[in-house]
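The following record pairs a protein chain with its ligand, manganese (II) ion.
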Amino acid sequence: MTKYKLEYIWLDGYTPTPNLRGKTQIKEFASFPTLEQLPLWGFDGSSTMQAEGHSSDCVLKPVAVFPDGARTNGVLVMCEVMMPDGKTPHPSNKRATILDDPGAWFGFEQEYFFYKDGRPLGFPEYGYPAPQGPYYTGVGYKFVGDIARKIVEEHLDLCLAAGINHEGINAEVAKGQWEFQIFGKGSKTAADQMWMARYLMLRLTEKYGIDIEFHCKPLGDTDWNGSGMHANFSTAYMREVGGKEYFESLMAAFEKNLMDHIAVYGPDNDKRLTGKHETAPWNKFSYGVADRGASIRVPHSFVNNGYKGYLEDRRPNSQGDPYQIASQILKTIASVPTDKKAAA
Ligand code: ADP
Ligand code: MN
Ligand code: MN
Ligand code: MN
């Protein structure tokens, strides 16, 4: 038997953006535990905005397991928060009620800022560094400093060790801003991996004395980019059948549901989706081929393949909840009829 360190991780009840929480328990298993072997656990919900003090117990229900590369015999356990009966999802538990479809593929591009001493990493104590331009995909100390790349590489290795489908990294447009991409099949699988990747980044940067700023417009109304979490998506029908007519019906549905999407695409998005800095205004839906100033960017490959493939919704922001984002995308897609004969 081996003693495993099980880190139970969940989303707390803070609004509009939940925080990640985690606590460890040690349990013996003959080999790396499966999801079915992991017991329910509890925590004090009165300390996480999930319960009142006089009746404070909430239940943690394991829903996904990942190896923890940072710990000997470490296990990362993504959990849903349940009511004390262990069966009813807690109101803060969005994952329990979202739409899912294993044929729907999601690629999330997580942008974020490294922050040190209350400002983006590499910013001087007063004023600003040289303007945006050379930082995006940049190389060299004067553009990316001496620590950011070390962190993103370490984070990449932690994600790969965990079995997370980390797909890539790039330095972003603002100084101190970076991106990583996570891909998954099914909304729960993709979003579990994104939350776990966020957790790993937050935990990793503790030892560097660096914070992760997920707010979508931390530098406010300036000439510095905000952070998004573009959601690339495709269903089996989009990949295999598609067609111009279906695409146009899909875009009409996205336009009709504009406000439902914005409602779950992350807080303060009006400050980011201004029409500047490669964004479309938050209150007007648009799409365009290769257009990074549109709400939805249609890749060239999509059109060249007969309107088949994936689309990029550029509106979700860096603080958005990938569970709710993926679910809303699936909801809108489900409202558009498909040609059953063609799909068969
Ligand atoms: P860009 O920065 O040009 O917008 P990225 O390369 O950062 O693009 O991200 C594109 C993401 O699209 C990839 O990380 C990948 O996960 C995702 N993707 C690729 N093909 C599909 C697909 N068929 N369905 C859903 N997502 C996809
Ligand atoms: Mn990208
Ligand atoms: Mn980007
Ligand atoms: Mn993108």
